[in-house]
Description:
Blueprint: H1 2-19, H2 27-33, E1 45-48, H3 53-56, H4 60-71, E2 77-83, E3 86-91, H5 93-107, E4 121-125, H6 140-155, E5 159-163, H7 171-183, H8 186-192, H9 194-210, H10 213-226, H11 230-254, H12 271-280, E6 284-287, E7 290-293, E8 303-306, H13 314-329, E9 333-339, H14 343-355, E10 364-369, E11 372-374, E12 377-378, H15 389-406, H16 414-431, E13 439-441, H17 443-446, H18 454-469, H19 487-497, H20 499-509, H21 513-532, H22 541-564
Parallel strand pairs: 4-5, 4-9, 9-10, 11-13
Antiparallel strand pairs: 1-3, 2-3, 6-7, 7-8, 11-12
Helix pairs in contact: 1-2, 1-4, 5-19, 5-22, 7-9, 7-10, 8-9, 10-11, 12-13, 13-14, 15-16, 18-21, 18-22, 19-21, 19-22, 20-21, 21-22
Amino acid sequence: MLILKQQTADLLSSAAAALWPQAPMSAGDLFALLEFPPDPAMGDLALPCFKLARTLRTAPPAIAAALCEACRGDDRYLSVEAVGGYLNFRVNFAAVGRRVCADIALRGEDYGSPHTGEGRTVVLDYSSPNVAKPFHVGHLGTTVIGHSLRLLHEFAGYKCVGINHLGDWGTQFGKLICAYRRWGSKEAVEAREIDELVALYVRFHAEAEADPSLEDEARAEFKKLETGDPDNLALWRWFIDISLREYQKTYRQLGITFDSYNGESFYTDKMPRQIERMREQNLLRIDDGASVVDLSAWNMPPCLILKRDGSTLYPTRDIAAAVYRAETYDFDKCIYVTSAGQSRLFAQWFKVVELMGYPWYDRLVHVPYGTVSINGEKLSTRSGNVILLKDIFRAAIDKVREISIQKNESAEGREEIAEAVGVGAIVFYYLSNNRMRDINLVIEDALSFDGNTGPYAQYTYARTCSILAKVADADASASFDAVAVTAEEADLVRCLALFPERVQAALDEYEPSHVTRYILDLCAAFNRFYHECSILGCEDATTRRSRIALTRCTHTVLGRALTLICLKKTEKI
């Protein structure tokens, strides 16, 4: 609909120039005013004339009436009506359908791409789990939001660099090393791998409640790690290897790969240069023994750079990482996907980067998202109150498999389909929400296969596959040639035409849920079309070809939309 919206803005601009030559209105200004009414009874496009009243010194209803007369007779619209202060356009969807279907047939899965990223590079930092801790449902947000944003930017033509900035450094390793030496064993860790590491971490915090001196012991172990103690380094590398093996299982299920796994430890030798730069620019201040950057002038707390014992913190490592990425990738944007709880931290070190004089400071983008709780309870690895992502995925996969068996469907490909649909159900559930919304995950709801869910979307895609598999050779290259359309066909054409706008909105707002909600709209429009309009059985050849073309276009656009939110396309369910 973007093209039609632009054409309508051009038409209105020409009409306004003739009516009010003393106050010309640009097509761009009118484009910004045009809107899609929520109620189809109000038309397909509407121009609210209220903001024009002061400029034109005319009442909104009079503006609408004058523009209405000037715009009538254009064959792109079935009708143009002035209703109060609104000018409502009813679109000729047979004409729009011909253009949209021809565009989709020509561009294929490239349809909807704005191509705004060609020749530009974006670095995306997402997922980034803390080593020696399992993937739980709280990690789902950064992982699937981040990867969807990568897919959206690649679709727009950007060169994307996906970085998994592993949490492989920090005091938590002192705690884990301390716990392993006190209560762990090589045999137990080899047998249970990451589950044993988590158990040791949880035990450390339970024991430290009764014996606070353990915290000092842990800090000492991490200090030894920072200074290169060989025994601690060996344990640290072992913990990382165990963790990565576990994480790769989840990434495989989600279809996610990364270009770099450089974690916090990678920047250990790169931090001193940045600390020295801060000193040279007189940015560092000593506060109770710690080195900080004063940000009070920007109404922010001081940014901690070094602890009293000289050890580094997250901002120190993040600043070093940002400089390395700017020098290595020459990015146009560097996107960080983390929980909203870290927003202040990112604002602080972004400001420090600016104060350090780096010209690319304004290319750093923090994309926050809301919290996830389980049945109202906050997640915490320390207390052991976590729901592991692999357990949720397993439950969903088992349920899909059970449904397949109950329906007596063919066992061929059952396991692959069960994984695609089961994992997709959880991902879709998450990405159907605005990313800033706090989600209370009720497992039963997440695994529901009724209503507006991932399985419903994947089933609709499979339905288009089934229809197209039955198309006769004579109709294999069918095009949309209808001269009139039903209400269901018009709704489907309208929805297909809106895909480029939804993609652009998702990119502009870093919000994958625009695509997810679009998928639900497209599925609903197609299924109404499927139930009300005979497709292959239609006797009129022109109508049949047009409906086959609409089905093929839905197949193309829905398939592309599913991949943009990390869901796998399933040709049958």
